[in-house]
Amino acid sequence: MTAEKQWADITLSIAIPCYNEELTVIEMIAKVAKQTPLVRQIIVVNDGSTDKTHQKLADLAGAWTNPQISLNIIEQDHNRGKGAAVRKAIEAATEPFFLIQDADLELTPLDYRELCQPIRDGEADVVYGDRFPNGFPETLNILSRTANWIVSTLTNALYKMGIKDQACGYKLVPTSLIRELNLTSNGFEICSEMTAKLGLRRTQVSNVPVLYDPRTFSQGKKIRWKDGILAVYTLLKYRLLSFI
C-alpha cells in the first residue's frame, strides 16, 4: 500500500456526545467540519439536553450543505450519560476510524492529523491524546490533577499500556475494533471500560500531545469526583474479571 493510499484510508467518524452545550456545540461542529478530508462523518448525540441544544442542532441540520461530510443528529429521549451517547454513536459510525470529540471547546480538532499519524505510520492500532506532555498546568485544580494521576497510574499498573493520559477525551480507535469491545457503560467510566478492554487485548496504543484549554465547573464542566471513583472501580473490575 502506498503512503497516499494508506492516508486516504484513514477517514473519521467523529462522535460528539452532547448535554446542555448550547453555547459551544455549533462552534465545535464547525471546527470539526473544517478537518476534511480526514473527517467524513459527524455524529452528534444530544443526550436529553434541557437547554436550547435541540433547537440549535435542528436548525443546523436543516441548513447543512457540506457535500464532503455527513451530519447525523441523534436525539436521546432523556439524559442517559456520556457512555450511552458514545455507544449510540458507535452504532451509527460509517468510517474506518472512530474518534470521540466532546462538545465543549477544551480540545481542538486541529490535532486530528497528529492523532492519526501513528496509525498512518503503522506504529499503533489505537491513539490516545495526551493533554499534559509537560506536566499539569498550574491552572488545573488539585482534585483534577490527583484524579488524572491516579487513573493513569492505575491503568498502567493493571494493564501495562504506557498510557500517559487515560482520562483524555481523544481516543482514536478503528470502528471495527471499538464495536468488538461491546461497551456497556453509560457514564464517564466508558473511558476506563474502553481502556481496560483494549489492554486485555494487548492493543498497541500511542500517545500524542494535544492542546488543552480546560473549562471550570462554573463554565459547564460536568465530570465530578464520583466519576473518578467509577473510573477506578471499572479499571479494577475488568482486571479482576480477567482472572476468573
Brief write-up:
The protein is an alpha/beta fold. The protein contains 9 helices and 7 strands. The chain has helices spanning 3-8, 25-33, 53-63, 82-92, 112-120, 142-159, 175-180, 190-200, 225-241; strands spanning 12-18, 39-47, 70-76, 97-100, 126-130, 171-174, 205-209.
User: Per CATH, which architecture?
Assistant: Alpha-Beta Complex
H and E string: HEHEHEHEHEHEHHEH
Biggest sheet descriptor: 7 strands, mixed
CATH superfamily: Spore Coat Polysaccharide Biosynthesis Protein SpsA, Chain A
- The end-to-end distance, rounded to whole angstroms, is 42 Å
Strand-residue proportion: 15-25%
> Order of strands across the biggest sheet?
3-2-1-4-6-5-7
3D shape: globular
Give the overall pLDDT as a whole number. 91
How many domain units?
1
Q: Regions with pLDDT < 50 over 5+ consecutive residues?
A: 1-5
